[in-house]
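> call design_seq(struct)
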């Protein structure tokens, strides 16, 4: 199985100082991996290292074939084409329509063909059940609908892995379950690996996967 994320004896920084030491973590194609732990134990710092927002402090790390120790600023957009990221607070651009949000990401990752962009936007909106919402502004959508758009944005470039940081943290239980079902269907049908940060043990019980826990400045599989 192809490995999409590999950390070996990796020290993870929060941008200033090391917060997690000696991480050994491998994620293969189609894996479902949870990162759990108390607030402030380094979960988000691991995520930020995976997406190359934070530099790897020491050790070895690669994501989708990119060596994090050799990462240059100009390589980061290429890496991010292979990643989809879903945040707790959606992070949609509030001053433009759903369609324009998705178009912005495609242009930022190198797409130029207008017809191809329109086609891809229509495909991802249909896949998340939001095909009638293209011309809506984010504030006209419910929280669950905004998160579905965020997932559509995350899968635009057919990523090898989706990074989800508390993706249901701001949603009610019923809406959250719909979002989780959507993520799990992408995981199963497309073989997209998912790495999810969560505090919610109920999610892990309902959708079992591998679990890594951050505590005492370490991250270990449990």
């Amino acid at each position: 199985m192809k490995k999409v994320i590999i950390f070996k004896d990796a020290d993870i920084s929060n941008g200033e100082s090391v917060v997690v030491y000696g991480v050994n973590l491998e994620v293969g194609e189609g894996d479902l991996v949870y990162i759990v732990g108390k607030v402030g134990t380094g979960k988000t710092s691991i995520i930020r290292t995976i997406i190359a927002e934070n530099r790897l402090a020491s050790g070895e790390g690669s994501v989708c074939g990119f060596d994090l120790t050799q990462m240059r600023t100009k390589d980061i957009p290429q890496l991010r084409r292979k990643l989809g990221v879903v945040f707790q607070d959606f992070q949609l651009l509030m001053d433009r329509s759903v369609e324009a949000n998705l178009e912005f990401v495609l242009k930022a990752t190198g797409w130029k063909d207008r017809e191809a962009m329109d086609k891809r936007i229509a495909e991802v909106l249909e896949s998340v059940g939001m095909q009638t919402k293209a011309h809506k502004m984010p504030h006209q959508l419910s929280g669950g609908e905004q998160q579905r758009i965020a997932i559509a944005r995350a899968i635009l470039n057919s990523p090898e892995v989706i990074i989800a940081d508390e993706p249901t943290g701001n949603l009610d239980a019923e809406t959250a379950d719909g979002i989780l079902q959507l993520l799990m269907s992408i995981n199963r049908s497309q073989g997209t690996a998912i790495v999810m940060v969560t505090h919610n043990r109920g999610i892990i019980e309902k959708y079992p996967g591998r679990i890594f826990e951050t505590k005492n400045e370490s991250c270990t599989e449990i």
